[in-house]
Design a protein that fits this description.
It comes from Hymenobacter ginkgonis. Helices cover 33% and strands 24% of the residues. By secondary structure, the chain is α+β, with helices and mostly antiparallel strands. It folds into 2 domains: 140 residues, Fructose-1,6-Bisphosphatase, Chain A, domain 1 (2-Layer Sandwich); 113 residues, D-Maltodextrin-Binding Protein, domain 2, CATH 3.40.190.
Length: 272
């Protein structure tokens, strides 16, 4: 079955808003004692799990033929052989949420193979819903969006995610970070990769890069950036920015200049 991606994107956006409403309700009453540590500095809460269950239930009804890739593993259906898979992060920015910081998002993508064809990022705190479908453009609260027109890195604002548990290649990463800091308007670490990419799509950020990142953090945002006129690749080559655990997104105009910095400091084959 080939889904109507545009119509499906509206329904997915509604589901993300519903999950976001649940998350928003939990902000004031969140129980810190129910935080679970998945790994070093990697946290999860009952809010993540409950919102994921809500999303899975709704998405199964919308498109039952699709499989799932989920952060919290509430559904055992990660079958790479199926044509379509939902890729879900029910609460991207859990650490922000737990600490009461206002940047966290619901992220849902539909991928055909490894290629995202639909993406929704709902940033809960600002009630902003970013939506896109392949071939139909990208939107913020149903208004069309486009990447920025910054043509030089010196005129750009860059987003990234800093390593928080895997530090094998920290020196090379810091060399890249240093050169970007010295040749841009600044670097921001928002704490939500999905939001970072959505902000590239609407022109608030001019680029975003992160290493050791998961598919469910970036899949929806990658679709948004591409549909908004930007470019997304791996760090040193076109490759697969969804499942390779490295994502580099720009407005397109900055891509070559910024990628040249990566080539000076990063080695092909670095993996988490």
């Amino acid at each position: 079955m080939t889904p109507d991606l545009l119509q499906l994107s509206y329904s997915v956006a509604d589901l993300c808003r519903q999950a976001g409403a649940f998350i928003r309700e939990q902000v004031s009453s969140f129980d810190q004692s129910k935080i679970v540590t998945k790994g070093l500095h990697d946290l999860v809460s009952y809010v993540d799990k409950e919102s994921e269950k809500m999303l899975v239930d709704g998405l199964q009804k919308l498109f039952p033929e699709a499989g799932f890739v989920t952060e919290e593993g509430t559904v055992a259906n990660d079958d790479a052989s199926v044509e379509y898979r939902w890729i879900i992060d029910p609460l991207d920015g859990t650490t922000n949420f737990i600490h009461g910081l206002p940047c966290f998002a619901v992220s849902v993508a539909l991928a055909r193979g490894n290629e995202p064809v639909l993406g929704v990022v709902y940033e809960v705190s600002r009630d902003e819903c970013f939506r896109g479908a392949q071939g139909h453009g990208a939107f913020l609260n149903d208004q069309p969006i486009h990447v920025s027109s910054a043509a030089k890195m010196n005129d750009s604002l860059i987003a990234t995610g800093l390593p928080f548990y895997k530090f094998d290649h920290i020196e090379a990463y810091l060399r890249i970070l240093t050169e970007y800091m010295q040749n841009s308007r600044g670097i921001r670490r928002w704490g939500s990769a999905a939001t970072d990419l959505a902000y590239v799509a609407c022109g608030r950020f001019d680029s975003y890069f992160e290493f050791n990142i998961n598919s469910y953090d970036v899949a929806a945002g990658i679709l948004l950036v591409r549909e908004a006129g930007g470019r997304v690749t791996q760090w040193l080559k076109d490759g697969d920015p969804v499942f390779s655990r490295e994502t580099f997104a720009t407005n397109g105009l900055l891509h070559d200049e910024m990628q040249a910095v990566m080539h000076r400091h990063w080695q092909e084959g670095y993996r988490s």
